[in-house]
Write a structure and sequence with these properties.
It is found in: Cell membrane. It is a single chain. The chain has 890 residues and is an alpha+beta fold. The protein is built from 32 helices and 28 strands. The radius of gyration is 35 Å and the shape is elongated. The relative contact order is 0.08. Bound molecules: adenosine-5'-triphosphate (ATP).
Length: 890
């Protein structure tokens, strides 16, 4: 079927759809169940079994398995079975952790998957692109990624970049008209928009003609490679650290074994103990727990409405030192209401709130009838004409469809009793030059009933003023005199000073009908009609969020296309601009090189009247000063800056697909305060990772040292292999995972950002690991020494006591790991997961010690009350010795 050859009506009929109302929701569901989801087939995933088996790939685990097998052959059945069971459980835990990390990453991918605006049951709604079906009517604008193959039915200056499909990076312009030809190349099928290609300009509508593998992309793509797993810098660093730790642990283990054999211990027993020690002491599970902690943090971020697209962003968030944020919609509500109007030398105020089209017009305190004010009526009509927004009543509420700035103009016109239909009867739109944030204007060429043509322009008043040679003044067209200009400028400034966003309207008659219209020739010599001032209230939570960021050593910078005076007023109301803080406008910014900007950028808090292109320069200057920069954006032109920033942030509701694809973080609610929450969570995740690294390594140091000390002192083994493996599985594993879910310490947002190159062991962590680990080993040995008085029965008793001491010392120490300061700093009941992990570890230890069937397996005997006095007294030492003010490391 050659879709490009068919005209729109034929396509509509062929795919059984209706251009006006689209498909019904139930029909779409039927088509999904019949033809499947709109997705490309993915490559094979790792199966559950091979993931489980991969847990045994670790060399030491393999050696342990072989050693266990040999001990089984030698008749040590119980040991062999018990050790195998523990290895199996360990693998199960590893499998569970990896699966969980994988699942949450998968869920994340789903959440940030693209959406498409589609007409269903006569209403435009957003659906995940994978739910598109053949026959759907789809709407797109510049910045959209096309979700399925479409036959275009409307194209307002659409240009699409099809390099993903054709390799050609120059955008192609698209049309609606059918194309003749037998073998038209994909690149020349100008009335088709292909799945996966990028709209760079204009807006349009199309009918879905192919989905999933039945698209041009599906046919060339074949099977999609499943995306490679993301590795964050911290994970990479931990992998390297892991290698060093393996060497250390193995070296020490070899030493323990060698010493043991020299002291006359049974060689085979020493070997088994050594391998068990190596398995326990090598933190092979660390990268998996880190992934779990990262992905759990990511889940918490989702609850706070921040979606992480790149896992590495979680770490970088904790280092952010500057947030550059858009103003409109991110710091403000993007709910615009016109409150002031200035035209023809007269000023009006407008009452009413939000998009409710009810309000009155006042002039000097007296209510007026708009029909009697010609200039006002003309301004409102033009504002309504050069406009695509619609206000509709839904469930007794007025909702906006379109751009809020334009919506405010529609509402103001409705308050005056005007509506668009009669205007469109009076004026036919001939041509349109859409708004872009570089020009900051939008124009339409219209033709009136007499066939006369006009250009009507609306845009930023200061720019429109430069383009106007005339003004409607006292209801007459007059040359733009210095006096009129001054009056208009005064009005722009006064509105800006009240934090109002301003927008002006101008027009001019066009002489000939057949002019070839260009933006430059149209948007000049205009007749200035008047200007609107609209409020866009700040989001209430933003002021506090900016303060919290300041306390956390993070500077907030406002970037806006609005007038400098408006931006300054809003920045001041948000306490963003400190005394001496500078406001820089786009003009000044464009005069500076990146290096020159670098010299002054620390003082600038507001960038006003900037174009998206300027954002890249700002990011570069900040980065050259050593800042870790977060940058927000929503449009196509924001993408380079979002990509260049250390943390690129895009808007979930108003952001384009391009901006989202470039970003590492998506704000579901477009809200600045969400960035602060994400940073807080980013810092917390990093601290939690440090907490369990500290816990695991200190425990491992303790385990190795107790064995080493014993061998140095020519003592029997203080712990048997199965006990070592048990401690590794239960006492180390569970609490470490619970630490990964800890809440942040109270001052997490009162500290300065972390340096991005800060090592894992900085801020005293290395000292803590070694000192606490040393003491854990020491007290375990002491208990062993105090309880061992020779003889086999005594040995089992002493080993049981040492085992209990090791477990208890670690379980007490885990509470110390929750704080950077001391164990007293935090409520021990503050983390329920940790309590659960600790209590269950204790109960399991009790079972191993007191439950008779388990005693021979774990080489234990029941302990008496006085044993516990000794055990608990000494087990607290590694934690409480450092808890006093003097000895505390902080
Ligand atoms: P930011 O979101 O970065 O804070 P912004 O998005 O408000 O800034 P722009 O949308 O680029 O910035 O708007 C800049 C100026 O362009 C506005 O102050 C307004 O005068 C004008 N403007 C905004 N929207 C339109 C529009 N739809 N038509 C005409 N002019 C507009």
């Amino acid at each position: 079927m050659k879709w490009y050859e068919s005209d729109v009506d034929a396509v509509e009929e062929l795919v059984h759809t209706d251009k006006q109302n689209g498909l019904s929701e139930s029909e779409a569901k039927k088509r999904i169940s019949k033809f499947g989801y709109n997705q490309l087939a993915e490559g094979k995933k790792v199966s559950a079994l091979s993931l489980f088996l991969s847990q045994f790939k670790d060399f030491m685990v393999f050696v342990l398995l072989v050693a266990t097998f040999i001990s089984g052959l030698l008749g040590e059945y119980i040991d062999a079975v018990a050790i195998s069971a523990i290895i199996f459980l360990n693998a199960l835990l590893g499998y569970y952790q990896e699966r969980r990390a994988e699942k949450s990453l998968e869920a994340l991918k789903q959440l940030s998957s693209p959406q498409t605006t589609v007409l269903r049951d006569g209403e435009w709604r957003k659906v995940p692109s994978q739910e598109l079906v053949v026959g759907d009517i789809v709407k797109f604008t510049s910045g959209s990624r096309i979700g399925a193959d479409l036959r275009l039915i409307r194209s307002d200056g659409v240009e699409i970049e099809e390099s993903a499909l054709t390799g050609e990076s120059v955008p192609v312009s698209k049309q609606v008209e059918r194309i003749e030809g037998d073998l038209v190349e994909l690149g020349d099928q100008a009335n088709i928009a292909f799945m996966g290609t990028l709209v760079t300009r204009g807006s349009g509508v199309g009918i879905v003609i192919g989905t999933g593998m039945n698209t041009a992309m599906g046919q060339i793509a074949g099977l999609l490679e499943s995306a490679p797993q993301q590795v964050t810098p911290l994970q990479r660093r931990l992998e390297q650290l892991g290698k060093i730790l393996i060497v250390c642990a193995l070296g020490l283990t070899v030493l323990v074994v060698a010493l043991g054999i020299m002291q006359g211990h049974d060689m085979y027993k020493m070997f088994l103990a050594g391998v068990s020690l190596a398995v326990a002491a090598i933190p092979e599970g660390l990268p998996a727990i880190v992934t779990v902690a990262l992905s759990l943090g990511v889940q918490r971020m989702i609850k706070r409405k921040a979606i992480v697209r790149r896992l590495s962003a979680v770490e970088t968030l904790g280092c952010a030192s500057v947030i550059c944020s858009d103003k409109t919609g991110t710091m403000t509500q993007n709910k615009m209401t016109v409150t002031t109007i200035y035209a023809s030398g007269k000023k009006w105020s407008v009452t009413g709130t939000g998009y409710q089209p009810e309000g009155c017009f006042f002039n000097g305190g007296t209510e007026i009838r708009v029909s009697q004010e010609k200039a006002l009526q003309q301004l409102l009509s033009f504002g309504l004409l050069v406009n695509h927004a619609n206000i509709a009543e839904k469930n007794a509420e007025y909702v906006l469809d379109g751009d809020p700035t334009e919506g405010a103009l529609v509402v103001a016109a409705m308050k005056a009793g005007l509506s668009r239909e009669p205007l469109l009867e009076q004026y036919t739109v001939v041509h349109e030059f859409p708004f872009d944030s570089k020009r900051k204007m939008m124009s339409m060429v219209v033709e009136d009933e007499n066939g006369d043509r006009y250009v009507v322009t609306k845009g930023a008043p200061d720019i429109l003023l430069q383009k106007s040679e005339w003004a409607l003044w006292h209801e007459r067209k007059q040359p733009m005199s210095a006096k009129i200009k001054k009056s208009l400028e005064g009005s722009i400034e006064s509105m800006g000073g009240q934090a109002l966003r301003t927008i002006a309207v101008g027009f001019k008659p066009l002489r000939s009908k057949h002019e070839s219209y260009t933006i430059n020739s149209l948007e000049k010599d205009l007749i200035f009609v008047g200007l609107f001032g609209m409020i866009d209230p700040p989001r209430p939570e933003v002021k506090n969020a900016i303060r919290e960021c300041r306390e956390a050593g993070i500077k907030t910078v406002m970037i806006t296309g609005d007038h400098a005076i408006t931006a300054t007023a809003i920045a001041s109301s948000l306490d963003l601009l400190p005394p001496g803080g500078r406001v820089m406008d786009g003009y000044e910014l464009s005069q500076l090189s990146v290096d020159e900007l670098e010299d002054v950028v620390e003082d600038v808090y507001v960038f006003a009247r900037v174009s998206p292109e300027h954002k890249l320069k700002i990011v570069q200057a900040l980065q050259q000063r050593g800042h870790i920069t977060a940058m927000t954006g929503d449009g196509v032109n924001d993408a380079p800056a979002i990509k260049a920033a250390d943390i690129g942030i895009s808007m979930g509701t108003t952001g384009t697909d391009v901006a989202k694809e470039a970003s590492a973080l998506v704000l579901m609610d477009d809200n600045f305060a969400t960035i602060k929450e994400a940073i807080k969570e980013g810092r917390n995740i990093y601290e939690n990772i440090r907490k369990f690294i500290r816990y695991l390594l200190a425990s491992n140091v303790g385990e190795i040292l107790v064995m080493l000390f014993a061998m140095l002192m020519a003592l029997p083994l203080p712990l048997v292999p199965i006990q070592i493996l048990w401690v590794n599985l239960v006492t180390d594993g569970l609490p470490a995972m619970a630490l990964g879910m800890d809440k942040p310490e109270g001052d997490v947002m009162k500290r300065n950002p972390r340096h991005p190159r800060e090592g894992v062991f900085s801020r005293g962590l290395g000292w803590k690991v070694l000192s606490r680990g040393f003491l854990i080993g020491l007290v375990t040995l002491l208990v062993f020494l105090f309880t061992y008085r020779g003889g086999q029965n005594e040995l089992i008793h002493a080993q049981t006591a040492a085992f209990a001491t090791l477990v208890m010392a670690q379980l007490i120490h885990v509470f110390d790991c929750r704080s950077d300061y001391s164990v007293y700093h935090r409520n021990p009941f503050g983390n329920v997961y940790l309590l659960f992990a600790v209590v269950s570890s204790i109960l399991l230890m009790m079972a191993v010690i007191y439950y008779p069937p388990l005693q021979p397996i774990f080489h234990t005997v029941s302990l008496a009350a006085h044993d516990w006095l000794l055990i608990l007294g000494l087990a607290g030492i590694p934690t409480f010795v450092f808890a006093g003010k003097l000895l505390s490391n902080k």
